[in-house]
């Protein structure tokens, strides 16, 4: 299958947050990634030869490891959400093509050569990466380095026909975006964005830079915003990677990360605080900048909340109080509507989000 053979129906589906990554083999995913670069006009605008584009994607594929969560399919999911957000927010009319190229390529490269063990492990275990980067975002710095190793090769350098100044801008932008995915910086970046919102100016480079960081952060944690049958397998993958790390920490006598301990963590408890304190605030602030991400009418939101309440047999209707803040989206709510609402985990998902609201989890190393 080539990008030319991808149907218009699939191309349109690719722009939506309900896209199901599980339907596609890795070879097909590489074609879909090429479609993104083509349909955003990057191939023509930046004179990217197709054989170079394909070699770049192959090298990217080769440098994602076969681990439960931070693998090539995760790379695709993050990139696909970024792609969908670019279309949903009409960023093509608001930002330069080169900024959009930075955002999409950052998503493609953001977890290259991830080891499956987070920064806390790297630092506590004094790994080569932690020593090399002096305990400062060791994984994210490594992802950047691997990305530019790939781009140093002429045959896989999709930027080789750009000017020195353009490449410098792209390199700076990609590094900023990928380093922003370190969740220890979450509050810092979100607060910067919130401070800019009242005066946000798309012509201001500093403002755009912060938005680009927010966009990749939103894309990186977007699994919970997908339909249940897409999102739940990803949670299984994430927990498996967490458990692998905690097992290794116990084996090596290192501090055991609480939210990764297989003896203490359950599916609901692993996500409740993360959704309330990380996911929602981030998505809400993005919707404040882009009103087009809000639901088309209040009736849609009311209908959804009523529908969810009707399916809840616990009597704890206050659990849905937080849904009133979900003004943002054709992403989360329509995904819920498209899911099987009677799914047991979905019921638990919302109930425990309220029940565990006061529990202190350490979220900054989730991603």
Automatic annotation (TrEMBL):
The organism's place on the tree of life at top rank: Eukaryota
Top-tier EC class: hydrolase
Protein residues bound to Zn(2+) 1: 74, 110-111, 220
Pathway: Purine metabolism; 3',5'-cyclic GMP degradation; GMP from 3',5'-cyclic GMP: step 1/1
EC number per UniProt: 3.1.4.35
PROSITE patterns the record matches: PDEASE_I_1, PDEASE_I_2
Family to which this protein belongs: Belongs to the cyclic nucleotide phosphodiesterase family. PDE9 subfamily.
Stated name of the protein: High affinity cGMP-specific 3',5'-cyclic phosphodiesterase 9A
Organism encoding this protein: Cyprinus carpio
């Amino acid at each position: 299958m080539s990008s030319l053979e991808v149907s218009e129906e699939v191309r349109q589906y690719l722009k939506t947050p309900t896209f199901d990554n599980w339907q596609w083999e890795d070879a097909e995913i590489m074609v879909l990634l090429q479609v993104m670069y083509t349909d955003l006009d990057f191939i023509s605008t930046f004179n990217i030869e197709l054989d170079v584009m394909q070699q770049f994607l192959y090298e990217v594929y080769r440098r994602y490891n076969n681990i439960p969560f931070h693998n090539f399919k995760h790379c695709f999911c993050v990139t696909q959400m970024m792609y969908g957000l670019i279309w949903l927010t009409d960023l093509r009319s608001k930002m330069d093509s080169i900024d959009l190229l930075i955002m999409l390529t950052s998503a493609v490269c953001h977890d290259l050569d991830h080891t499956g063990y987070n920064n806390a492990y790297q630092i506590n275990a004094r790994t080569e990466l932690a020593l090399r980067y002096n305990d400062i975002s060791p994984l994210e710095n490594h992802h950047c380095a691997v990305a530019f190793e790939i781009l140093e090769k002429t045959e896989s350098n999709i930027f080789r026909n750009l000017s020195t100044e353009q490449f410098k801008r792209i390199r700076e932008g990609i590094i900023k975006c990928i380093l922003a995915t370190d969740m220890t910086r979450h509050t810092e970046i979100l607060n910067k964005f919130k401070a800019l919102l009242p005066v946000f100016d798309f012509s201001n480079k500093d403002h755009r830079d912060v938005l680009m960081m927010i966009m990749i952060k939103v894309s990186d944690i977007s699994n919970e915003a997908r339909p249940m049958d897409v999102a739940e397998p990803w949670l299984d993958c994430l927990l498996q990677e967490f458990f692998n790390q905690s097992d290794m920490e116990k084996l090596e006598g290192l501090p055991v990360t609480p939210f990764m301990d297989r003896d203490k963590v359950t599916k609901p408890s692993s996500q409740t605080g993360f959704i309330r304190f990380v996911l929602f605030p981030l998505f809400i602030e993005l919707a404040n900048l882009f009103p087009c991400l809000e639901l088309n009418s209040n009736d849609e939101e009311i209908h959804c909340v009523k529908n969810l309440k009707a399916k809840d047999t616990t009597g704890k209707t206050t659990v849905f109080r937080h849904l009133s803040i979900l003004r943002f989206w054709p992403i989360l709510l329509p995904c819920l509507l498209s899911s099987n609402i009677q799914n047991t985990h979905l019921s638990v998902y919302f109930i425990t989000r309220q029940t565990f609201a006061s529990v202190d989890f350490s979220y900054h190393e989730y991603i």
